[in-house]
Sequence to fold (333 residues):
Amino acid sequence: MGCLFPNELFSTFAPSNIEFMIGKEKLKGHGIILVVNVLFAVNISVSKSLIPAGMAPEALTLLRIFFAVAMFWLSSLFVGREKVALKDLGLLFICSCAGIAFNQSLFMEGLNLTSPVDASIIATAGPIYVMLLAALILKEPITKQKVFGVALGVGGGALVILSSAGSDDRSSSLGGDMLIVTSNLLYSIYIVISRPLSRRYSAVTIMKWMFLFSMLMLTPFMYRHVLDAPAFRHSAIEWGETLRIVFVLLGGTFIPYLLIPMSLKRLRPTTVSMYSYIQPIIASLLAVAVGQGSFTVDKLLAALLVFTGVYLVTMSKAREDVEREKRQSQVPE
Fold:
């Protein structure tokens, strides 16, 4: 095997090559978080179809957590063992409260009381929470471009929902909406405070501890709801209901929660949160696919607003960019 001369070695790690590698990682991060939000969008409708007739919201919440604990701890046997620092276990506990235990409990309770349409509208406020929290906690700059991008995303998400609100059965309530708002705020806190952990540990390590903490917190209060769930009392297997439960456990819980830390490792929290605007658009496209709606000019405009907003937030300056420019300006010519 030949060795590299100094100039060849330098060219291998030249800025252009490093920038290309960083660009590929960011692109991978965008693809990952896109998949996450598609799964979450489908999960809203599927979960709504299961509660309360199939099971109480508490039962579905605890069932998701039980399944995730089993899957993540089983997965950890096949990846390199990572020792988690004691201080990080404390942060993982806080993340489990904000991102799983209270977040999922409040979301399912809220979804039981309000409509999926309302839940989608409320989700569009997430990036605003994340932008403010990232500025306070991570010292990320709030630029005009980022604010404008978030505003476009809010406008697009609201437009696609409001344009179809007239044909939706809005069994909503103020109490349910407030539960969804609180759930959304907690999820935003999780997105921001978990980013340092995502850079130190694998997604499996983070999630196995978060879901374990959540299971220990919620089981004493919710296990009776699982035992009493109507879905488990049928004399014969109802395959439609069973498949929906499987999707919620696998596609709505294990896979997206596995992917979120992978995206946070590659993207800023504000960028990750911006993809929540895609959820109402995906929901509308699903409605069109099954003949429950039509693709209108309003929805096309909403899609353009959302993706433009995501692009502007993605291209805005991160804290590292600002600090690099500051250092370069201080270098004497």
Q: What stands out?
A: The chain has a mean pLDDT of 79. The chain has 15 helices and no strands. Residues 15-50 form the longest helix (36 residues).
